[in-house]
Amino acid sequence: MTYALPYALKKIVLALPVLIGVSVIAFLLGVVALGDPAREALSADGVSTPTQEEIDVKRIELGLDQSLGKQYQQWIGGILQGDLGTSFMTNIPIAEEFRDRLPKTLALSISALLLVIFLSIPLAVLMAVYQHSWFDHIGRLFSLLLISTPGFLAAILLMMFFSVHLRWLPTSGYGTFSHLIIPSLVLAFGTSGVIMRVNRATLLEVLHKNYILNAHAKGLTKAFVLYRHALRNSLLPVITIIGNYFGSILGGSAIVETIFAIPGVGRYAIEGIMSMDYPVIQAYVLFTGVVYVLFNLLIDLSYILIDPRIRLGGDQG
């Protein structure tokens, strides 16, 4: 573990300026890019044609009369204390909404992640082991189908088949596990296809390495060599894809949540965008950015456990 600590510290230090940059972008998006927040706040209060005096009063109330630097300092100070602001439309603290909605987004994201793992990796292993067989050909065709099918089309087809034709699953809503099945499948579609192809390719490459051939020559069983040596060393790029995927769907499942009426964080963000509720938009952009950066950091740190070259100093990049 000689080089593990310096490697981990390097990755953590590199993540800090990225997190600061994400917070600056989220702040500027709400204050600069979305028009005048004071007018939007007054509109949410029912004042459709505010006077300049009313706008000036609201700007002072929101702290918009101060410099951008001072506004950012106050905003990020509140964030660090758990204060994400208050929604213009509902007048409910955004942190409370996130606490209520995040478990639903987590349930959807974890369900989709489990589908990706248990669908794509076993199929990729079988495709590599039985290379050029009928199973491999069908598997590669299936993976291309998953990758090329747009999410909205997958949602329509799955709803038509499982909800309308078979009447097995509900079309929308949230409340039971059955409500998560179709949305999870939609989220898992494209990434499952990518992982199937990537894992098949890396596993085939590993299976032709000298240490694998030596293991076979020592009389070790094919299954032992596959799962003890080959599979583990072929999973590094797959883990990267899975980690990035989970970070992206945890913060970016807004469209699926809206289509299937799941009251998660993503649907909350869409509602905020439609109503120009800039504190909600700021909080969501910050949330998605931080989640993505942190998951990438966790992926990098997981390499310490998975890749012995990092622990021994062979790869400190």
Automatic annotation (TrEMBL):
* Lineage: superkingdom: Bacteria
List the subcellular locations.
Cell membrane
Task: Identify the PROSITE patterns for this entry.
Answer: ABC_TM1
One of its GO biological process terms is: transmembrane transport
Q: Which PANTHER family match?
A: DIPEPTIDE TRANSPORT SYSTEM PERMEASE PROTEIN DPPB-RELATED
The family note in this entry says: Belongs to the binding-protein-dependent transport system permease family.
List the membrane topology term(s). Multi-pass membrane protein
Q: Which InterPro entries does this chain map to?
A: BPD_transp_1_N, MetI-like, MetI-like_sf
Q: Which GO terms describe its cellular component?
A: plasma membrane
Q: Which organism is it from?
A: Tindallia californiensis
Q: Could you tell me which residue ranges the ABC transmembrane type-1 domain spans? A: 102-299
Protein name listed in UniProt: Peptide/nickel transport system permease protein
TM helices/strands, residue ranges: 12-34, 106-129, 141-164, 176-195, 235-261, 281-306
Query: What UniProt keywords are attached to this protein's entry?
Result: Cell membrane, Membrane, Transmembrane, Transmembrane helix, Transport
The family database entries (Pfam families) matched by this protein are listed as:
BPD_transp_1, BPD_transp_1_N
